[in-house]
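Inverse folding, one chain.
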């Protein structure tokens, strides 16, 4: 909270959190988790989105203002965002995801306001270049050209921060690394929600669990191939939570591998925690990840995990393999062996829970607050209330 010396009244720093929408990705979840804690710390928070849509709309915090730019495409959001900035003149604009970061920088320049722009990066640019999406493929060039104009830059993992510095020439010390805020105050409550799927009540047959959008980045095709090898040696079932363009392809693959009766594609599930709690092992099969929220959630449930050693955050979350098995990206045999080994051993659940539950919203919010105060006031006038967090 800021004290206005002229009026003697407390004034909140106005913060806009700018997203495409409320889709079910990690960046959207980060902002939704972070916003209430920043409000509690005295910020006046507004969500600005292209459209109010997406699977996370039901969990957008009540009481936080949401403004829709009514833009069909990212570039179409530029002028509406310029008009919003001129009208509202917020103190800070936190943008998320590649194209949005560029639009936020351009809009602040065109609006000619004193709004400080903080661009946040949530994925590996090298990884995104593997995806057939022209907007993602041009991001390295766009960042090299325009990201210098951002007042602050946040990366969600050290791997993303180092990669960004290497690809753009922006000094590493200009990039603030803040791991995602995953563990919310209602975590235990969400954990205790009832289990609806009968496979999770069958203690005799363990469930292998994957969670994520059914897209190329998540590489569930490799997980299916690995699972087919696992069930040659032991009984198991596989549940995938998520929706996406590859659903039909994955179903066909399961039939081709003759494992369709052991695989269930449950679709998007708003709260995956009960599934994680009762799974025998959680597997992250991604080709790349900026961070890996679901990996943290699984650990926080005390569930053993297997992850690819992909570009991004998983190696940091698992501390190089200390808290879970790491396998090469796309290596079917290595993944199958790691899954079988995880199912065969008695997990150290207390250690896994402690690791997962260290990625709290409060801890991340303190780091965001520190950066916001530094940008708003300058380093010589940091909020003294945040000093205990560092």
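Residues assigned per position:
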């Amino acid at each position: 909270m800021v004290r206005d010396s002229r009026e003697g009244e407390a004034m909140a720093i106005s913060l806009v959190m700018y997203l495409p929408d409320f889709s079910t990705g990690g960046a959207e979840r980060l902002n939704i988790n972070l916003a209430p804690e920043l409000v509690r710390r005295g910020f006046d928070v507004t969500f600005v989105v292209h459209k109010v849509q997406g699977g996370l709309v039901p969990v957008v915090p009540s009481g936080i203002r949401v403004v829709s730019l009514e833009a069909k495409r990212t570039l179409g959001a530029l002028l509406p965002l310029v008009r919003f900035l001129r009208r509202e003149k917020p103190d800070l604009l936190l943008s998320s995801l590649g194209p949005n970061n560029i639009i936020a920088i351009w809009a602040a320049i065109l609006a000619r306001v004193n709004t400080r722009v903080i661009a946040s990066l949530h994925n590996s640019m090298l990884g995104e270049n593997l995806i057939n999406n022209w907007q993602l493929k041009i991001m390295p060039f766009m960042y090299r050209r325009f990201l210098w104009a951002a007042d602050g830059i946040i990366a969600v993992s050290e791997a993303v921060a180092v990669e960004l510095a290497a690809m753009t020439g922006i000094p590493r010390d200009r990039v603030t690394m803040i791991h995602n805020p995953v563990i919310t105050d209602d975590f235990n409550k969400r954990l205790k929600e009832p289990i609806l799927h009968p496979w999770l009540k069958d203690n005799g047959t363990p469930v292998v669990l994957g969670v994520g959008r059914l897209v190329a980045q998540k590489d569930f095709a490799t997980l299916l191939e690995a699972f087919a090898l696992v069930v040659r040696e032991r009984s198991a079932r596989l549940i995938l939570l998520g929706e996406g363009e590859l659903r039909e392809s994955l179903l066909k693959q399961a039939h081709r591998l003759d494992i369709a009766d052991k695989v269930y594609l449950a679709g998007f599930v708003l709260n995956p925690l009960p599934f994680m709690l009762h799974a025998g092992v959680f597997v992250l099969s991604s080709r790349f990840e900026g961070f890996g929220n679901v990996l943290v959630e699984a650990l926080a449930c005390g569930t053993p995990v297997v992850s690819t050693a992909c570009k991004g955050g998983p190696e940091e979350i698992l501390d190089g393999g200390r808290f879970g098995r790491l396998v090469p990206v796309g290596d079917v045999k290595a993944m199958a062996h790691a899954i079988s080994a995880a199912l065969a051993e008695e997990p150290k659940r207390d250690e896994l829970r402690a690791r997962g539950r260290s990625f709290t919203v409060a801890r991340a919010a303190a780091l965001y607050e520190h950066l916001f105060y530094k940008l708003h006031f300058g380093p010589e006038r940091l909020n003294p209330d945040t000093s205990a967090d560092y």
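The longest helix spans residues 361-377. The CA atoms of residues 101 and 196 lie 40 Å apart.
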